[in-house]
Amino acid sequence: MSDLPSWRDTQARQAIVDFVQRTTTTGSPEFVAAGDRIAVFDNDGTLWSEQPLYFQFLFALDRVRALAAQHPEWKTIEPYKWVIDNDMKSLVAAGEKGLLPIIAATHAGVTTEQFTDIVRDWLADARHPVTRRRYDAMVFKPMQELMVFLRANGYGTWIVSGGGQEFLRAWVEATYGIPPQQVIGSYAGLKYVTGDRPSIMKTEQPELVDDHAGKPVGIQRFLGRRPVMAFGNSDGDFEMLEWTTTGEGPRFGALLHHTDGEREFAYDRASMVGKLDRGLDEAAQRGWVVIDMARDWETVYPEAT
Amino acid sequence: MSDLPSWRDTQARQAIVDFVQRTTTTGSPEFVAAGDRIAVFDNDGTLWSEQPLYFQFLFALDRVRALAAQHPEWKTIEPYKWVIDNDMKSLVAAGEKGLLPIIAATHAGVTTEQFTDIVRDWLADARHPVTRRRYDAMVFKPMQELMVFLRANGYGTWIVSGGGQEFLRAWVEATYGIPPQQVIGSYAGLKYVTGDRPSIMKTEQPELVDDHAGKPVGIQRFLGRRPVMAFGNSDGDFEMLEWTTTGEGPRFGALLHHTDGEREFAYDRASMVGKLDRGLDEAAQRGWVVIDMARDWETVYPEAT
């Protein structure tokens, strides 16, 4: 129990600990060489919360508000005016596609170094609308412990997220102990700008949407091999778990089921954010572990600081 | 001397050893934390030979010949017919652009796993037209030793090559000790194919040309930070060395100058392959070390096996 103190002693915890033991014990028929021990983690809803909206989207809305003074024209142009007017109804109705201009306006046209500073400054000041916590204090303590446990057993821990790669890199090393080169996320273009002080600009050119079938593609692009373990929480992670668990040899897939409306948020099949439907239907037949937050976790968030 | 036995005791070797010592000695004013110690290496002409043509291009020509029986139409279609007729003059005249169909026909439409097997089978059988060696026996022993030396001092070693990412991954772990997730190369699209046996197909869609300004872009995409050391040999590596050595703190850039027509090949400013011109002009003012193969290396290739 000492390894995973925020996990209750249930089947989910036992399945994880057993798998790690079987794959790391020399002479075990399921032994996996140290270099092949790779565990991948979705981020939104798997390592931190994602309600009422993906936190990166809340960042983009805050960023529009911060930049509004420099863009007086936004007061009359959709979708920006909805943000300035706090018209959440129109924003939600526009859907992800209708809000792409907001992502472009808040994520491109700056250097990667400038963007990192912007994200870090935002994280330091912003508070979640429901919990009033810092967003990076809404990470899941049991998952932080799990990553430490896996690394102690020779597993490399990687993020494979639909969120933006550079957005994640700005904070995940401090929060999860995952260095920038182990962060796979969605990304748009990059452009090298030479001169006295060379830099790399973020552009609007879409390149990888690291969700659904984009997740195995991102994994192959960055890792060049199938992971051994995969953790997700939504149908956007389905293909990542499928790709991982259909490889030869021992494989492990798990879905975090958000069942805890008291300590976090309860949602699954009908949720607009982090919908989990097909995954729940097929987990048993595919041998995937379903982690039930209310049942399996003693603690959800770290103590507030 | 024991660390780098294939290097002569010249300024180039001394500059490398001094830099590693300054950046890894606790308390040194130029100490670099272990997690930030990243060294990047070009491959063609830096870690293995590249004359008379990039070896991956020779692979593609061999592959056209191997597939010709399945493609009778190739006998009359350019550029394939030039390969089948061994018309090197027309092939060279067509240039890289004219030969793109050959790259597509030999690198796409197969799964990543199939492609890996194809490359490995080719490497096992193919011989270099001049030396009659296996291609992976034309790697530079001093550079292999250098990578071992750097890793022993906590440096991560990464490949940043204009060559194809999946082509490189098929053999660089065995040859250089560099795992697939530390290989940045040029790449086209990948497509996840689900079903009974999920796989990832290589497509023809161009995505990254990891050469010139594409190298800093590839580095940011995969590493998410500036390297501390960079090794190249051609003007295609210029931006990679520039990006690396214009970062704050201690930085190291080196260019391998192919001066040894007896033991390898001698070429620089006028070469079609691996042209080194601007790099030679600017190395001194930029503080880049020029490694002179004839002068600085005791050994070039490993002993033939």
Automatic annotation (TrEMBL), chains A, B:
Its EC number is 3.1.3.3. The keyword Metal-binding applies. Its cofactor is Mg(2+). Keywords: Amino-acid biosynthesis, Hydrolase, Magnesium, Metal-binding, Serine biosynthesis. Pathway: Amino-acid biosynthesis; L-serine biosynthesis; L-serine from 3-phospho-D-glycerate: step 3/3. One of its GO terms (molecular function) is magnesium ion binding. The keyword Amino-acid biosynthesis applies. InterPro entries: HAD-like_SerB, HAD-like_sf, HAD_sf. GO terms for biological process: L-serine biosynthetic process. It catalyses: O-phospho-L-serine + H2O = L-serine + phosphate; O-phospho-D-serine + H2O = D-serine + phosphate. PANTHER family: PHOSPHOSERINE PHOSPHATASE. This is phosphoserine phosphatase. It comes from Noviluteimonas gilva.
